[in-house]
Amino acid sequence: MNPLFEKLFGDRRVLREWFGHLIMYSMTITLSGLYKDFFSLGQGILQMLGNIHGISLKPSDIDEFKKGMMTMPAHADVVGGLQKLKSAGFRMVTLTNSPPNPKGQSPLEHAGLAPFFERRFSIETVRAYKPAPLAYHLVAQELDVPPSSCCMVAAHVWDTVGAQSAGFSAALITRPGNAALPVAGLPQPNFVAPDLPALAAKLPAPKAV
Question: What is the CATH number of domain 78-202?
Answer without folding.
Answer: 3.40.50.1000
